[in-house]
Amino acid sequence: MSFYFAIIGTKDNPIYECEFGTSKQGGDGIARWPEDQRPMNQFILHSALDIVEEVQWVQRELYLKTVDRFNNLMVSCFLSAGNIKFLLLHDTKIEDPIRQFFTDVHEVYIKTLMNPFYEVDMRITSMVFDARVRAAAKKYL
Amino acid sequence: MSNLNAPNSPFVPFSPNPSIQSGVPTATPPLSASKPAQLGSSNLRYASSRKSIYDRHLNRTQRSELSKASFAFLFGEMIQYAQKQVSGIQDLEKKLNIQGYAIGQRLLELLLYREGRSAKRETRVLGILQFIAQTLYRHLFGKPADGLEKSREHEDEYMLIDHDPVVNSHISVPKEMSQLNCAAFVAGIIEAVLDGSLFPCRVTAHSVFSEQFPSKTVFLIKFEESVLEREAVLQ
Amino acid sequence: MVILSILILNKAGGLIYQRDFNEGLNKLSSNDYLVLAGTFHGVHAITSRISPVPGSGGLEVLESDQFRVQCFQTLTGTKFLIFAEPHQPNIDVICRRVYELYADYVMKNPFYQIEMPIRCEQFDRQLVAYIKPKQ
Question: Which intervals of the chain form a coiled coil (chain A) (predicted)?
């Protein structure tokens, strides 16, 4: 199982992204996307934004579950109060671990936001943030 | 660090590690080379306790209170600072609004986070206004707003009423600036919360004198057209 | 209890606030008030210098059969003069409270310039609200 994760700002601008593999069932946490698939991941994720914009007015939860599919890939979305979109591309249907992952990342994102030098929609360049996201991925996915 | 700068550095397009970004790949290296960004090897500076903002719990200060006097001094300084760089009253209110805006953006996320698993985003005008009048106001000032009214003349205008804004309690505006209401700062917070929840609008603070409440303030919320159109569709 | 009038002097002896709380006081011209403040400031300075006891803080109370003046000086040299009836009790409490209102509604007001005359609505309002019910 491989994952591609991105955080999209309020102006549909990516502010963070990373990829990782599963750490469950003896996985080593390294993403193994086919070589020609990797550039596609960004497209797939961004094309899901349209659907998120529709779903977000119907559903009031933060976790919107799986919003889009592309071949055998799924896009799950978590939408924060300030309309920051957390998108995860995955190939296996797992709901609860993804929710837990998103919840953790959401918390770390808010901590980033508490930094007075960080502004909404700015790229997240903190290494600690990166490490925390990867730790959450390792823990749940 | 040096191995990441090498020509065979992994392709991580928006990686927070600047040295990875500088090595934009010409040929993508094998994926197994992909490494998580290394901690502690950056130019990131830590506090002396070696703890960053990420080590603090978000709910730690949930119930803590702030001395009103220290806030009054800080807010006073903010006004004086803003006053130095503006030409008129409107300009000053704009500056205060911007100062509040940054706080609103953060509070919106934080307050919803603190609601835990039951947290719901607000999708309707009334819902978000209630959120502001209750949750946000209680968090900021320890009391709900004193009133929420819909304008009779304009479909797109709402009024949030505060009989005695905390931010204004130590402030007497001189006569020659009688148009000024320093609660523009709070208006900025409200505007950010509404904007952030995708209810784009303009929020302005107006003093409405009454015998009973001499510093009564009305926050006029004027939504953009798109908000009303969407509201009609959702209904 | 009757409070007749309250004056606030800055540290240079200039009058920065004056308000009457009772009818029937002699109306002085604004110039006379300034003279009164300046004179008191000078007398206060003299009393603190020529006091027979070393380390004296200067004039505190001035009594006549018509009224009594209580002077309260802050650490920064601002003086509060309270004119009251001759046998007014607890006047030091009133002084403290007026000082508190001054700290709250004058010093915390970003539009007030220090040592300048006090024109703060909130201060006026709070002072009246404090003194009036006691009259």
Answer: none
